[in-house]
Amino acid sequence: MDMLGGITSAEFLRDYWQKKPLVIRQALPGFESPVTADELAGLACEETVESRIVIEDDAGKPWQVHNGPFNEERFSKLPEQNWTLLVQGLDHWVPEVADLLEHFRFVPNWRLDDIMASYAPKGGSVGPHYDQYDVFLLQAQGNRRWTFGGECGSKSPRLEGTPLRILSDWQGQETVVLEPGDMLYLPPAIGHHGVAEDDCITLSVGFRAPTVDDLLTGFTDFLCNQPNAAEHMNDPDLAVQDNPGTIAPVVIDRLEALIQEKIGDRRNLSLWFGQFSTAPKSVETVVPADEPAASEDLQAAIQAGEQVRWNEGSRFAFHELDNETALFVDGEQYLLRGDARPFAPLLCAGARVNVKALAAFAEDDAILGLLTNLYNQGSIYFE
Fold it and tell me: Which residues of the chain have a pLDDT value below 50?
């Protein structure tokens, strides 16, 4: 795979993914930033866009962070150097940025977090730190010097006086300068520090895995909302005890069997995880269509060859069950059976759906109704 420096995606996952960093020179040759610094500043002024400014020395305080939205005057008051503007979820707002994700489809859709943009004048950075997710750092404009290496964790010394997790006593193992089109992959927990050598923009393609807490609380909350969750535990074989204060082993056995029965339901686990992992990161990004479409209008557009595309903030995934396929879109599940099952992998393969193949499925009334629903709720649209 050319974007990975001549190695295949399988080789990358085997040798580098969550194992060690990889510098890829000219991962995207001739790459030009799809956004300008002024456009990023404009987005940072919007209420619905998550943004931050990090200043290395803010009136004597180290590495201070200011959260957006900002007004235009805020940018005129920034120092000439040593600050950074961060715009989160840029792929949700800029289709050309979302298109970059097609290069990363070798990683499952459910692992994607978002693409963050970082603009900085000379000397700007967010300090030496580590993250708990996999990230591909694509240089879009200018040059950034990266020092990286060494595994970090909760016991790594941190700088005081800053809300950020800045490493106070860290020395990287390797230093490189990335030019436009170059890319650096970093696994979780690897220390790194990127400093702008001139006005530069870096795009961070992040892939996040859920925490154990997310999984346990999310799945148990799901189970608690099932119809039989209100049923009471029973004990028809209760026996007299020597001491009424004893919690007998048979009680723990019954509890264990009950809990294992619930959490051991693989179908429920699959359906919950599909909904959990495709829930939109922000409710602001998936909004209903301005004018709801009728099924016949949608079918006519598809038959005419109009390109269907995912909403930039939508998430799509599917899971094969025994006799059906579960399609997940923006936190909702749709169960497909029989000849409709191949519709799910078609819809989830990439942001631009194969229109010719889609046209055949759109002849089915049930699938056409599903497509109409997805269009009207804002999960897909026509380019």
Answer: none
Query: How many domains does the chain fold into?
Result: 3
| Distance of alpha carbon 311 from alpha carbon 289, whole angstroms | 11
* Residue-number span of the structural domain to which 128 is assigned: 9-207
Say yes or no: 248 and 362 in one domain: no
Do 173 and 79 reside in the same domain of the chain? yes
Task: Select from 84, 188, 169, 87 the least CA-distant residue to 130.
Answer: 188
In a domain, 269, yes or no: no
- Other CB atoms closer than 10 Å to residue 279's CB: what's the count? 15
Q: What is the pLDDT of residues 257-274, one digit of tens each?
A: 999 999 999 999 999 999
* Residue 290 pLDDT: 86
Give the tokens for residue 144. Answer: 């950034």
Residue at 190 is within a domain: yes
**Three-state DSSP string of 74-113:** HHHCCCCCCEEEEECCHHHCCHHHHHHHHHHCCCCHHHEE
339 & 241 share domain: no
Asked if residue 257 and residue 239 are part of one domain, the reply reads yes
Looking at residue 283, its pLDDT comes to 78
Confidence (pTM):
0.93
Which residue is associated with the tokens 């000439």?
80
